Structure formats: structure tokens, C-alpha cells
User: Fold this.
Amino acid sequence: TWKLSGARFPLGSALLFAIRYTLARYGLFTSPPLVGSTITSGTSLLVLALGGLLIPHRPLRGLSLPAIRFLLGSGLAYTLAYWCLFGTLAGERLAIVVPLLHTDPIWTLLFTSLFLREKHPITPALLCGTGLVFVGSVLIILAR
Assistant:
């Protein structure tokens, strides 16, 4: 079952991502997108590495080779996504970039339906919410 207290991490993540977009946009006034995405990814690596030192057990001990492959693929996609994001932020307003970026639930729903159908069933509420995200993104882009 899902508890309301479980929303604190997703909402905290959303808040931090919103702050990140604003900071990145200011940083891109004086640096090219590749430099911006490199500094951002490097900072993330540093923070995660320092956090890993504080964990008393070894978190990588239980990973299987297939899990590592999927996580490396995810990391590659994440890095390329950052590069695309910073390239777009360098040339466009946040009010346009962020709604387009947040069409990711549509793509996530598509990939989930293709690859994770048994583990994550697609419900009518999920379809409706994803549709609302799509409609909201289109309206913001059209209002430009």
C-alpha cells in the first residue's frame, strides 16, 4: 500500500530538479552546454562518492552482472539526456524547455508497456494522468 508520507521523496526531488533547471540556466549564460553537463555530472559523481563513504556496508556487493549492465545503460542515457537538456537550455527559455522535458511520463509509460508490463501494469488512472501531462505540455507550448 502507498502512504502519503511516501510523497516526500518525489516532491523533494521535484523541488530540487526545479532549482537545478534555474541554476543550470544561469550557468549556461557563460558556458557551453557540454561544459555545463560535464560540471553537473561531475558534481553528482563527487556528491554520490562522498555519500558512499558514509554508508557502513558496501552497496555494490549484491549487484549481479545483468543489473550492472542495466544500470550502466541507465547512466549512459542519463548523461546523454543531460547533454541534450543543457543544449536546449542554452538556447531556449525555461518556460518552453521544462514542459517539453516533462513529457517523460509519456515515454516512460510507452517503455514500461513494452518492457515491464508484468511488473508494472498500466492502469486507467496512470493513462489519464499521463494524458493530462501531455495536454498540459501542448497547451504551454502553443501559448508561446
Observations:
- Residues 10 and 16 are 10 Å apart (CA to CA).
- The chain has a mean pLDDT of 80.
- The two ends are 41 Å apart (CA to CA).
